[in-house]
Amino acid sequence: MGSAGRRRDSTASLSLREAPTRVTDPEPDPLVLQVPAQALLEGDTVTLRCRCQQDNHLTWVTKLSLSSLQLHHSGRYGCEGLVGSWQSRSAAVTVTAHGVPLSGVSLSVQPPGGQVALGDCLVLSCTVATGTGPLSFSWHREGSGAPLGTDPPPGPAPHWGQ
């Protein structure tokens, strides 16, 4: 008989040296870093909590407090610790510090009422009651397009007069 009529069989043997393991979804990270859900403003105190959970039970919590929060505190944070005998690290979370919006802007004048004689000095002061971040001021006379001065330091305006 030719090879076209032969039946060909193939046999392979496989031996297991270890018990088979079932593939499942990975365990959730045991460490979780929690940050407050509300907006974080400059000057606030914020507490970051690192929680360790094993077998659906909370086993420990540690805290980090950032007092007088500043814009440069913004960034990615994480925590790490020993869980059992394993070093573990939380997923990183983003902390964003926001500036406090400016409010309570007022203008005052010396002498009160702004009445001066020719040659006398008039002092204008611009103040901001609350807010953070860089401030810039510009001084304008009503009806004039050009500013009298720009970006002076906070406080009294330049003196005009003697």
UniProtKB/TrEMBL annotation:
TM region positions: none
Gene3D superfamilies xref list: Immunoglobulins
Amino acid composition bias (Pro residues), ranges on this chain: 150-162
SMART domains (alphabetical): IG (SM00409)
Region (Disordered), start-end ranges: 1-29, 139-162
Compositional bias annotation for Basic and acidic residues: 1-10
Highest taxon of the lineage: Eukaryota
PROSITE patterns in the record: IG_LIKE
Protein known as: Uncharacterized protein
The organism of origin for this protein: Geospiza parvula (Small tree-finch)
